[in-house]
Amino acid sequence: MHYVAGLGCRQNCPLSELRDLLQHTLTTHDLPLSALTGLASSQHKRGEPALLQLASELQIPLYWLSSAQLQPYDARLSQHSELSRQLTGSAGVAEACALAQAEYLNGGHATLLGPRQHNGRATCAIAVAPITEPA
Questions:
Q1: pTM for the whole thing?
Q2: For residues 114 and 79, is the Cβ–Cβ distance under 8 A?
């Protein structure tokens, strides 16, 4: 299985808040950190220090997704944010990023394990896609 954590955050979100939210989300879904194949966020957040630090600290790949990659997932999101749409081109960063990257890694359909989790400054969602074997 490919498990991808989609992450969104406000500018200058503290690393500790992002890390704690990721751990909380994993615990909610009864997953160990080692289950994650990658982290994903909007290209709009490419310079966000906490995202970069988290990926480095955990030694997990961090993927940056464009608005064109995220927009097709709007209909599958549990919540929609007009502000998010204006900033990133997607109605929701965490869920759309998780779905898009899990589907890219799998080459097929991914599903969210549940609605996004959030704290004051960040959002996190986990998507899963079964690993498909080549024919």
A1: 0.87
A2: no
